[in-house]
Predict the 3D structure of the following.
Amino acid sequence: MTLILTIPAKGGIVLASDGQITSGMVRATGEKIQILNPRCIWSASGELALIQRVEERIVALPSNKPLMELRDTIAQIVKQCVTELLNLDFRTSFFQQNPDVLLQLHPGDFVFAEASPNPVILHITVYGTPEWIKDRPFASGNGDMFAYALLQKYQKTSFDVERASALAYKVLEEAIEVGAYGLGPPIGIWQLSKDGAKQLDGPEVTRISDTANTLRQAEIAIFTEDVNEKEGSSTT
Amino acid sequence: MVQSKGNWILAALRIAPLDRIHLMKALFLAWYRAGKNIPEYFEFEPYLYGPCSLEVYSVLDELSKQGVIVQPLHAVQEWADYDLTDRGRKTADNIVQNIEPDMRELIEEATLEVYPLGFYDLLRKVYSEAPEFAENSLMKEVISK
């Protein structure tokens, strides 16, 4: 299970994910955000077998080409990998007449973010359909609806990269806490800018975590103070 | 006498256990009140939740690895107070003997001041005392009301 969050920002893009990898009944932690090339990073939710297969292919893509040029090639890779897995899967024969069920056998959802030459976010579905995500956050994986609900109030809001990172952390943290099944820490955050892709290190993520915590505490204090003031005024 | 950065954290935690944000603000207030001039101290910058020194996090990790500070289990582990271990307390007791009395007083006073404060009052105190370090804060508008 995975939750990936992409937030466009002034001068860059933030890509963040939870850090729990689930395989059957076993949980582990790991990196879910990968480097495609020095300007582009990607992540995926869905079946590990599909993600691994796609990863094996896309590492061979030319590193000097922008996403704009790689879009259809990556989409073809996704489609090809899904087809291969379906051909390998003995269950496929039982669902030949039901494509919706067939595609649920090997779920996958892919998101790519590139900061230069232009900041772009590319989403590729398990059907191999590519779409550009423009001027809005994007979430993928279980808990995505939860993330969208938390982000709703920030529609049309413009952030710098640091603030977008804090927001991404807060949304992921709340999604993990409130209980989308199979999500877990540690939260990984990458910042993309014209200078390239940068993964936040331990102290930098902790600093973002403290920002999210402070925001939450301030939010609680606002409501509590309000209630206290009302209670105080009603008794005097 | 020049102190290592970890010593300042131990000196603060010797007075009271603090979570990371309270500790950050206590260390900041001592530094700010000393005219932002303490040798071998943390450098603070205005960040999204007010004054912050990235190095505090690295030093906390290092002190935890050394077994001189510990965070007891907490529902949200990130928010747990840091406290001295027995070994850490002995170390801290020795360290404070070598800190200049003025500096020791600053760090101890700041710790005692922030320790009982809730987050809201903590930020209000820091932002009112050092408004230039609240300039990037996400909460500055709310806190200033």
